[in-house]
Amino acid sequence: MLYLSRRIDFSATHVYRVPAWSEEENRRVFGKCNNPSGHGHDYKLEIMVKGPLNEKSGIVVNTTEIKQIANSFVSEELDGKFLDREHPFFQQRIPTTENLVQYIWQSLENRFKGCELHRIRLHENHYLSAEREGGSMTRLTRKYHFCAAHRLHSNDLSPEENIALFGKCNNPHGHGHNYYLDVTVQGEPDPITGMIIHLSELDEIVETVVLNKFDHKHLNLDTEEFKDLNPTSEVVAMVIYNLLHPHLPQLHKIGLWETEKNYFEYYGTGEQT
């Protein structure tokens, strides 16, 4: 099975509002997204399809067909629209990132010939995205940032072995990174709010449980979590998952960017990827 993807960009405006709620409740739950005048985003939509290789043509499907179908859908229904005022679907549902990705999936699922829709991923901005894949639940990813220092050193290895394995990262004084943390939750969007979890709630949990512990800290010297653990990024991702999971039953995975080139994921013991 081969997988191929196409990215399409579009812009749209929307407001998050539940008409049955008071103005105070809408502002409390949706914050700035409740601005009555609306706000907008430059969305990036990734459409991935899958299928067997056609041995005669050497392709799965003509990517021009995918482009035409996807561009036509986006142009007619989403691009340049004030979604909850102009689109019938979103006049009845809040156009959250989760609801948007579900609607796009339902709209495109059976439109492609010779291949099958595999995944829809929608980036609302650099810090928020949602995706839908096959029969899986909708997933929402929120990106966070923290700065920390660490030293890579294993007490189970000799000094020579540590230097050979970790090189400059074994510097006794430590070194630092601008970490970017992807927290992915999964579930079905609430029928009223359109959210898997309130973003304000997610932000508060991550800030309290993770960022306040690790931001601007030396992981080896300033934290209890890494007093006896070698803070490789693999271990940091695992520790963060285990810290968050009791507070976030919807947690699907942790992604940790140590640098722009080094990325790590942890799904939890026994979790399916």
TrEMBL record:
Enzyme class per UniProt: lyase
User: What chemistry does it catalyse, as a reaction equation?
Assistant: 7,8-dihydroneopterin 3'-triphosphate + H2O = 6-carboxy-5,6,7,8-tetrahydropterin + triphosphate + acetaldehyde + 2 H(+)
Please, one GO biological process term?
tetrahydrobiopterin biosynthetic process
Q: Which Pfam families match?
A: PTPS (PF01242)
Q: What SUPFAM superfamilies has UniProt attached to this entry? A: Tetrahydrobiopterin biosynthesis enzymes-like
InterPro entries in the cross-refs = 6-PTP_synth/QueD (IPR007115), 6-PTP_synth/QueD_sf (IPR038418), PTPS_Cys_AS (IPR022470)
EC number assigned by the record: 4.1.2.50
Pathway, per record? Purine metabolism; 7-cyano-7-deazaguanine biosynthesis
Obligatory cofactor(s): Zn(2+)
Q: Which family does it belong to?
A: Belongs to the PTPS family. QueD subfamily.
Protein name (Swiss-Prot/TrEMBL): 6-carboxy-5,6,7,8-tetrahydropterin synthase
Q: Which organism is it from?
A: Brevibacillus gelatini
